[in-house]
Write a structure and sequence with these properties.
The complex is a heterodimer of chains A (about 240) and B (about 250). Chain A has about 240 residues and is mainly α. Chain A has helices at about 1-35, 45-55, 70-75, 75-85, 125-130, 135-145, 150-160, 165-175, 180-195, 195-200, 205-210, 225-240, and strands at about 90, 105-110, 120, 220. Chain A has a two-stranded antiparallel sheet. Chain A has a two-stranded antiparallel sheet with strand order 2-4. In chain A, helix 7 runs parallel beside helix 9. Chain A is globular. Chain B is α+β, with helices and mostly antiparallel strands. Chain B has one domain (about 5-250): paralog of FGE (formylglycine-generating enzyme) (Alpha-Beta Complex). Chain B has helices at about 40-50, 55-60, 105-115, 125-130, 145-150; strands at about 5, 10-15, 25-30, 30-35, 65, 75-80, 190-195, 205-210, 230-235, 240, 245-250. In chain B, the strands form four sheets. Chain B has a four-stranded mixed sheet with strand order 9-8-7-10, with no helix packed on it. The two termini of chain B are about 30 Å apart. The chains are: A mainly alpha (about 240), B alpha+beta (about 250).
Chain lengths: ~240, ~250
């Protein structure tokens, strides 16, 4: 009996150790994915100049604050784009920061992270400026995206601009690695905001956005079927908007 | 005058299996006392009267405020917002609301209050042990009964006022039912600052708060639970951000 008990304890110990290893491994993959989700993409247009201005006025050392108006006015359209994409002028709300989940990399969440992960966000003036410059900023967004990564700042810019025009580009970038599932989330939000009927009638829409229990933490499993279905629907949405 | 609830020393279960920054584990906690209620406008007023303290929001005049009609997670600028007028002058002040939790104060402001009052903020672990009140899991109550325990947002979104309870924003502390150890508003009303860091923290300016707030609905920011941890800039202040305090229990002289 004594031996049997020891054997059971040993087996339990092995199981527990294996479980912890699996958890640690899963944790690392999820942490790496979360880190990837929270990266911003820095546009290349006048980047050094814009960063130097932000540094000169010590904007990041302050809780909030815009570039002096006179300096902003002197920037070219491309430099203004870079300024907005790398710097949020105000502090953002705390509950915007979602916790990191185990298996996060296997999920397509209802919403991507906010534009910046340094507890900052775009000011009202920045939002207005981004929208006012839609025509000028769209090609700059596209050029930046095509370099291979759509950071959380660019994703939020796409949403602010309701930039359905970028759906083909987003599909192209996503298909390269099929890793950044937030790209799919952006396409779904565009369909939602665009009231695209085939999406509004789908089970995905119900689960992520319309169900009694759906929340900012709701997700779909990131299997190939779901990935392809979202891209297919988004492509149809794009086509409907181009008519 | 602060009312206290004692939490005995012990090993407590905290965290959740799905959360990397707050994994399920046991933590050893020394005995401590935690305030029964969130710190009120009245208590903060006494601190300001005694010290002449000026809050971060009063210095920086860069408030982001709430009003119904805004999209999810959207706040608008209002330079007049401070702890006297948490959502700006035009949306009313704290007159007649001295028993509501103080808001529009930053982590730095909360620490200043604590220094003056001879208390401290609860640690992240202490807050969770107190919130759980001896229960296990995400909630200390049946989730279907949350509205009895927590001042939270009842609407699907924030495009129109939530009329499912009488409180558009904060409620007087202690209005809702207490948790199993007699602590009020552990969920909802205001996010509560905690001391301590998460392992994913990368910046010195990051601080944390817990418990969700009047703004939180089950469809947006469902942080009104025992396990989620929010992040905020050390100087940032919001009309849904407040705190409660804790203190060590002095050992009796031998």
């Amino acid at each position: 009996m004594k031996h049997a008990t020891i054997a059971v304890i040993c087996l339990l110990g092995t199981t527990l150790a294996t479980g912890q290893d699996d958890m640690a491994k899963a944790g690392k993959a999820s942490e790496a994915y979360r880190a990837h989700r929270e990266l911003i993409t820095k546009p290349s247009f006048g980047l050094a100049k814009v960063e130097a201005l932000i540094k000169k006025y010590k904007l990041r050392d302050k809780e909030e604050g815009p570039l002096p108006a006179a300096e902003y006015k002197k920037l070219s359209s491309k430099e203004k784009f870079s300024y907005h994409m790398i710097y949020g002028e105000v502090s953002s709300q705390n509950c915007d920061a979602m916790p990191t989940f185990v298996d996060e990399e296997k999920h397509i969440y209802a919403y991507p992270p906010g534009a910046f992960q340094d507890e900052r966000g775009w000011s009202d003036a920045q939002m207005a400026e981004i929208k006012r410059n839609r025509n000028a900023f769209l090609p700059l967004l596209q050029q930046t995206i095509l370099k291979g990564k759509i950071g959380c700042n660019l994703k939020q810019a796409i949403l602010e601009l309701e930039a359905f025009e970028l759906i083909p580009t987003m599909c192209e970038v996503y298909k390269r690695k099929r890793y950044d599932h937030d790209i799919l989330s952006v396409m779904m939000i565009l369909m939602k905001e665009g009231k695209f009927k085939p999406f509004l009638e789908s089970a995905s829409y119900k689960k992520l956005y319309a169900d009694e229990e759906s929340s900012y933490q709701s997700f779909l499993v990131a299997n190939k079927e779901n990935q392809d279905l979202i891209m297919s629907r988004a492509t149809a949405f794009y086509a409907s908007k181009r008519k | 005058m602060i009312s206290w609830v004692t939490v005995p020393a012990g090993s407590y279960q905290v965290g959740a299996t799905e959360l990397i920054d707050n994994p399920r584990r046991n933590v050893a906690v020394r005995a401590f006392e935690i305030s029964k209620y969130e710190v009120t406008n009245q208590q903060f007023y006494a601190f300001v009267q005694a010290t002449g303290y000026v809050t971060d929001a009063e210095h920086s005049r860069n408030g982001r405020v709430f009003e119904p009609g805004l999209k999810e997670f959207r706040w608008i600028s209002d330079k007049t917002a401070n702890w006297h007028f948490p959502n700006g002058h035009s949306r009313g002040g704290i007159q007649g609301k001295m028993n509501h939790p103080v808001t529009r104060i930053s982590f730095r402001d909360a620490e200043a209050f604590c220094r003056w009052a001879g208390v401290r903020l609860p640690t992240l672990d202490e807050w969770e042990v107190a919130a759980r009140g001896g229960t296990d899991g995400r909630y200390f109550c049946d989730p279907s009964e949350l509205r009895q325990y927590a001042n939270i947002w009842g609407g699907r979104d924030h495009l129109k006022p939530d009329k499912s309870d009488p409180f558009l924003t904060t409620a007087p502390v202690g209005t809702f039912r207490p948790n199993p150890i007699g602590l009020y508003d552990m969920y909802g009303n205001v996010f509560e600052f905690c001391s301590g860091r998460l392992r994913s923290d990368t910046r010195d300016t990051q601080r944390h708060s817990r418990g969700g707030s009047w703004w939180c609905s089950k469809n947006s920011c469902c942080f009104f639970n025992s396990v989620d941890v929010g992040t905020v800039n050390i100087h940032a202040s919001f009309s849904n951000q407040g705190f409660r305090v804790a203190r060590d229990i002095k050992k009796p002289a031998e």
